[in-house]
Design brief:
The chain is α/β, with parallel strands linked by helices. The protein folds into 5 domains: 78 residues, no CATH class; 89 residues, OB fold (Dihydrolipoamide Acetyltransferase, E2P) (Beta Barrel); 242 residues, no CATH class; 42 residues; 235 residues, Ribonuclease Z/Hydroxyacylglutathione hydrolase-like (Metallo-beta-lactamase, Chain A), CATH 3.60.15.10. It is built from 28 helices and 23 strands. β19, α26 and β20 form a beta-alpha-beta unit. The model has no long low-confidence stretch (mean pLDDT 86).
């Protein structure tokens, strides 16, 4: 009787009104929840939500009730996750996981649903499950330092990480050898020990999901080709794992292979740290197995919708994970249009999936990369085929049989060369400015309209909508956002100087220096803002922290003239775009005149070869000093110049900011582009004392993040990115 109870319960459940209503309709609720998140961040989707709510109400009131209940739960959980408890991680704690890198390791400590990261830069012998007594130092995570750039503080919050710390002291109190995460730790150690070079990098990426060791050139090629998703462990990997396991189990004549595969996939979830895209694929497999065994009558759209709703209820912050969004977007698309696609031949089928998937997620990709490769659908078909038939199967094979490592490495090197070659020689790339909330909503309104009329008899409307969305994409590619104010932007970089001047009134876009080029932050900013042309790129002197990103900017953005000093010995002084200047020269850019005050001769110290620029922008006079020393600064005292704002020389080091110069020029404002390399100690205390002694208002990128000077005919003011402060 006890064994019959589940069957009786299931039979009764299938005959209930709720079950019969939801079967083949769960997607209706999942779309409603998606619209809730869209409205939560973009009010322009409200009309669509209203229309959809009316549709749901007419279809069945039960959908409205269930959706409202889920939204209440989601709002509660979002509020819970937004609450921040400031704790100190000291004393006895249990290490839940250890993520090892070449120069450091991350110790993961969990407390309820919140995670804390402890950075161990000494790579101590600490294992997952260890109970240790620690002394730590809390770090303050950086927010958005440049408009639209990576927000580390927000990233931590969206991943349930509520604090980051540096390990100062520790003592192991107890070893726990049976922690589940020890498997991933040992697997990582195994890869490091058995494999080298490209093999190790690929194995970590494709087995564990760690892409940190990818070479920049290869990583950029993946992004440029639109194939970076192949290295986000997802349904493709799970599908191949399932196929391999089924084959092995069949060969050794083991039945009930679904049970063994399910157990292995559960283990794989731990190995990949519960990556959202892997969770999606694994849960969908579990649901498919249960659906078949229990004859639940769930459709493919039901299965993916249940998976989506389950995950979003467990963790609403998944909606901020790009892998989660892209994974579900593409999966929904494939399921919804599977009938249309499966009629086509294999290659054409793959091409259509790649093409339509790219169209479906186009705005997401634009706001992630600000660039689209229009050959990406074709490249994807090639690379997906290579990945699924060669790379991934060989990856799993070489993990078990490391004697094939050299052969595997040869294949990997070939894959890398193909990727880089296609990115550099076989691509049609178009840059896009980041799309506004209105543009995002408009695109999807047009796309939904096309899908609505797709199977209708009115083909003329469908064709017109396709024309309209094509026009939208064209204008998005040539559109440059109108700047609300004329601006000078002093960027907060890890190391070095970079200043952008945008005067929309006189159509002048000029840049002074580029920083080191770490993460190509300046190039990314220019693309996000839709800046396609720089009239003058001033490179004050030949030091990497001032011209390090110049090559990439010149490659990605149309630079009219590269301005270097007459004593610059870099390659930038030898191009057909080079403009050589020295003391006494003048450069006009629209209505702005850049007066060159230095150099007057060649100096042994490269810092003293810096171009010094004096200009009036808006209502204020600016002096850009490069990295000039105090001796050079003192030469400016007798040049009869008016200065309101000084870009302090050499990041505020002790070699700069002569008290004599500050006393003579009497600036009101000083900008210190200090960088964030602690060993340099920028800015120097003496520099701050000098400026304070003369009553100068100081702006520092290390404290204020990116600093913006906005101006028009009536007003001019400075503002900070970190905490807006107007003067």
């Amino acid at each position: 009787m006890l064994m019959e109870f589940p069957k009786i319960f299931l039979s009764k459940l299938k005959n209930t009104f709720v079950y019969r209503t939801l079967i083949n309709n769960i997607i209706v609720i999942s779309i409603a929840i998606l619209l809730f998140f869209l409205i939560y961040h973009n009010i322009f989707f409200l009309p669509l939500a209203v229309i959809y709510s009316i549709y749901m109400y007419k279809k069945n009131k039960l959908f409205i009730v269930i959706t409202l209940l889920m939204i209440i739960v989601l709002l509660f959980k979002i509020n819970l996750y937004n609450s921040n408890t400031d704790i100190t991680v000291n004393g006895v704690i249990k290490i839940d996981d250890v993520i090892k890198y070449d120069k450091y390791q991350k110790l993961i400590y969990k407390r309820t649903y919140k995670k804390y990261i402890i950075y161990d830069f000494d790579n101590n012998d600490i294992l997952p499950g260890d109970i240790i007594d620690v002394v730590t130092e809390k770090q303050i995570p950086l927010g958005e330092r440049i408009e639209g750039s990576f927000d580390y503080a927000k990233y931590l919050k969206n991943n349930h990480i509520y604090g980051i710390y540096n390990l100062k002291e520790f003592k192991i109190l107890k070893r726990n050898k049976y922690n589940i995460n020890i498997i991933k730790y040992k697997l990582n150690s195994y890869i490091n020990k058995k494999f080298s070079n490209e093999s190790r990098v690929f194995l970590k990426a494709l087995i564990i999901g760690d892409k940190n060791d990818f070479d920049d050139e290869f990583l950029n090629s993946l992004i440029g080709n639109g194939t970076i998703h192949l290295f986000a462990i997802s349904g493709l990997h799970v599908g191949i794992i399932i196929a391999i396991l089924k084959k092995i189990l069949e060969l050794i004549n083991i039945k009930k292979n679904d049970l063994y595969i399910s157990l292995f996939l559960l283990l794989y979830l731990f190995i990949t740290s519960f990556s959202p895209s892997i969770i999606r694929a694994v849960i969908m497999y579990y649901l498919a197995v249960v659906n078949k065994k229990l004859k639940l009558m769930l459709s493919s759209s039901d299965i993916i919708s249940i998976t989506f709703l389950f995950l979003i209820l467990i963790n609403p912050l998944y909606i901020y994970n790009n892998g989660f969004v892209l994974s579900f977007s593409v999966s929904y698309f494939i399921i919804l249009f599977s009938e249309l696609i499966k009629r086509k031949k294999n290659f054409y089928q793959g091409f259509l999936i790649s093409l339509f998937s790219n169209v479906f997620v186009l705005p997401i990709i634009i706001n992630m990369n600000n660039e689209i490769n229009f050959l990406s659908p074709i490249v994807n078909v090639l690379f997906i085929s290579l990945m699924s038939t060669v790379i991934l199967p060989f990856t799993f094979l070489v993990m078990v049989f490391p004697m094939f490592a050299k052969m595997y490495e040869s294949i990997i090197k070939c894959f890398i060369k193909i990727s880089i070659f296609l990115n550099e020689n076989v691509s049609i790339k178009i840059s896009f400015a980041s799309l506004s909330n209105f543009s995002l909503a408009l695109y999807y309104y047009l796309l939904i309209s096309i899908l609505y009329f797709f199977n209708s008899n009115n083909r003329s409307i469908r064709k017109w909508l396709i024309v309209v969305i094509s026009i939208f994409i064209f204008f998005a590619s040539v559109y440059s956002p109108t700047w609300k104010e004329n601006e000078i932007i002093f960027f907060d970089l890890d190391e070095g100087d970079s200043t952008l001047i945008v005067d929309r009134d006189s159509q002048c876009v000029a840049m002074i220096d580029t920083g080191t080029g770490k993460n190509n932050e300046i190039t990314k900013f220019l693309k996000r803002k839709g800046i396609k042309k720089i009239y003058y790129l001033f490179l004050t002197h030949n030091h990497n922290d001032h011209n390090g990103e110049a090559s990439n900017i010149i490659k990605e953005i149309n630079v009219n003239k590269i301005v270097v000093s007459a004593y610059d010995n870099s390659d930038f002084g030898k191009t057909n775009k080079t403009l050589i200047v020295k003391k006494g020269d003048n450069i006009s850019c629209g209505g702005i005149s850049f007066n060159i005050l230095h150099p007057d001769k060649s100096y042994k110290d490269e810092n003293d070869n810096s171009i010094i620029i004096h200009t009036k922008i808006g209502k204020h006079y600016f002096l850009f000093l490069g990295d000039a020393t105090k001796e050079t600064e003192n030469k400016l005292i007798n040049q009869n110049i008016k200065v309101d704002c000084i870009k302090i020389s050499h990041h505020g080091s002790s070699t700069s900011t002569s008290p004599k110069m500050i006393e003579a020029l009497k600036p009101k404002y000083a900008i210190i582009m200090a960088g964030r390399v602690k060993k340099f100690g920028f800015p120097n205390k003496k520099t701050i004392e000098t400026l304070n002694n003369f009553g100068v208002n100081i702006y520092r990128t290390d404290l204020d993040y990116t600093i913006v000077y906005s101006y028009n005919k009536d007003k001019a003011f400075f503002k900070k990115t970190r905490n807006t402060d107007v003067h």
